[in-house]
Amino acid sequence: MEIKNLSEDTMIAEACCGEGDLSKKSELTEQEHNRLRAAEIKVEWLRKMIPQGLSAKIAYEGEEAVGFIEYMPIELANLFKGRSLFIINCMVAPHTPPWGEPYKERIPRCGSALVQAMIEDVKGKCKGIITPFGFAYTEDMRGFFAKFGFEEFENEGLRMLIKRFGPVEFPSPVHYEKRYQYQPVPDKFVIDVFWSSICPDLGPRQLLNVKDVAEEFGDMVVVNDICTDDREILMKYGIDPFTSWSTIFFNGKPMFSHPGPAEKEEIRETLKKIL
Q1: Do 108 and 228 lie in a common domain?
Q2: Segment 163-187, tens digit of pLDDT
Q3: Domain for residue 179, yes or no?
Q4: Cβ atoms within 10 A of the Cβ of 229, count?
Q5: Which terminus of the chain, N or C, has fewer Cβ atoms within 10 Å?
Q6: Burial class for 96, CB neighbours closer than 10 Å (0-12, 13-18, 19+)
Q7: Who has greater pLDDT, 165 or 239?
Q8: What is the CATH number of the domain that holds 194?
């Protein structure tokens, strides 16, 4: 196994979220094609964020990307207030709980190698590292990160894991005043999609699913594409930032609150029932 840095050569594989570099496959299923489209949007965000301090490590077995860990200075995050900290945006490894999917072959120490590579990269650049909101929600995950010196903390209702390199101030959540208001369009069904590039599955892929299905209904449906990458947009609409990666409103009513992206069939059937 080899750990590579985030670069033009590796970022599409990272953005494919553990599916390998889909751009190199000669034939793609419909779902893989949708994942690649979403990954290409994530790549554009990565290019914008790398000069600001975002980085990642990608694990390879031969020519195949099998896992990654992505992290950035907390000052770049929209959900938290903090300083001199790095935050893990996401991590995917074949055997790391709770993503130990049985159909994927276990790769010993893949997750451990990624975390250790990240620690070595940032320990001289900050006072600590925190896991993302909700990331360590199982005993397995807390135990996994504990091996690297991460410990649990709670501050202003924010409960996360932190690895400290020295004295630190715990981060706190950012609260946004709710300002979103449904704007009806005469004789149209309106879908407002709030999405973020940070997670290609919950953000771009879900947006693309909505747009693809909406096209099937012609001019009956209007889709408002609202990207929440910038904090100013979250402030403008006041959408809950902890759900903004996957918030969809049908005529002002929030839909699809389950974990994971809304798939095309689910969106299609819901629209059929309403229309």
Answers
A1: no
A2: 999 999 999 998 888 899 999 999 9
A3: no
A4: 17
A5: C
A6: buried
A7: 165
A8: 3.40.30.10
